[in-house]
Amino acid sequence: MTAHSVIHDRILQVYQNRILLGEDGLEYKLRPGAVSYVRGEFLSKTILQAGAVRTLETGLGSGLSTLFILEASVQNGAQHHSHVIMDPGQESFFHGVGTRLLKNTEVWEMVEFHGEASQTVMPRLITDGRTFDAIFIDGDHRFDGAFCDAYFAHRLLKPGGVLIIDDVWMDAVYLVCHFVEASYRYEIIGELQEGYSSAGPDAEIDDSFTYGRAKNRPSIRAYRKPLQDVADDYSFNLPFSPVREQIPEDVVRRRVSELSREALVALSVGDKKTARVLLMRALRFQPTRVKTHLRLARTFLPSGLARALGGKTHRSERRD
Ligand SMILES: C[S@@+](CC[C@H](N)C(=O)[O-])C[C@H]1O[C@@H](n2cnc3c(N)ncnc32)[C@H](O)[C@@H]1O
Q1: Which atom belonging to ligand 1 lies closest to the Cα atom of 119?
Q2: 172 shares its domain with 83
Q3: Which of 52, 122, 136, 225 has its CA 20 to 30 A from that of 46?
Q4: Do 92 and 168 belong to one domain?
Q5: Pocket of ligand 1 contains residue 148 by CB under 6 Å
Q6: Per-residue pLDDT reduced to its tens digit, 216-261
Q7: Cα-atom radius of gyration of the chain, to the nearest Å?
Q8: Cβ 32 under 6 angstroms from ligand 1
């Protein structure tokens, strides 16, 4: 069996069992923050097509994205210590499930792992003169963390190298992407509009995932760094303006309608708390919609009074 098919089999096994072994020998559930299968496939294909051998990744987590990267890079000829990964929470928060997965797949020799934050590791790599063919950012998702990763990645990537950014739907990450495009002039070479969550089919999906979908933002995006680095130009007039995006009207209408319908179903069975949460989500998309405000008010009233005021059932409001 070839090295990449051994890695691929292990990937399939993890998604099937959804259980990982920690460094302490205990079993842990696969966390929903891990890359979903389709996003992992996208990552792997992008690395393969780029012919990348020297790779870097921020945020080891469960180790799944690392396996997808290695699956592709071994086919490109990658050998020992070709993939640099970092994660300050691997031992504590993740109980070492990522490091254990790599050891059990017998690819530990292929990685250089740092149990530290990317913001301290990446500048050291720059000082050491290291460069990479492809970099995957999936570490600290807050703006400052994600921005630092992109800033250092830009300095570590070879000209024409590939940058892949995960969770583009998040506001902070989306803004970082906008900066990379507008100021560093990175070219989008691929993206996905699916596979937002890696949670299993029976898992409760975090609303933030549907938020990303509703904004028509990709789950993951790949860029090519320009051959000529504009950030090296010290006349330093990098263009950048805040994102002024409009969510398409039909997407807003559809999402608000879905949420209202679910809220009415909840109200009809007396579940006012769920109805309230759903209606508040709907207001995030359409803050001025009077009907939603009135329905929200009903969730604070005693059930009898709410019914009398509401009049309609969710069935009669289906065409909402
Ligand atoms: C969404 S998870 C990554 C999931 C991973 N790609 C996978 O497939 O399982 C984010 C990871 O980033 C790590 N992280 C958070 N802040 C970081 C930082 N400053 N530098 C590197 N990793 C960081 C977290 O500990 C977590 O493991």
Answers
A1: 19
A2: yes
A3: 122
A4: yes
A5: no
A6: 788 899 999 999 877 666 555 666 776 666 667 777 888 888 889 9
A7: 23
A8: no
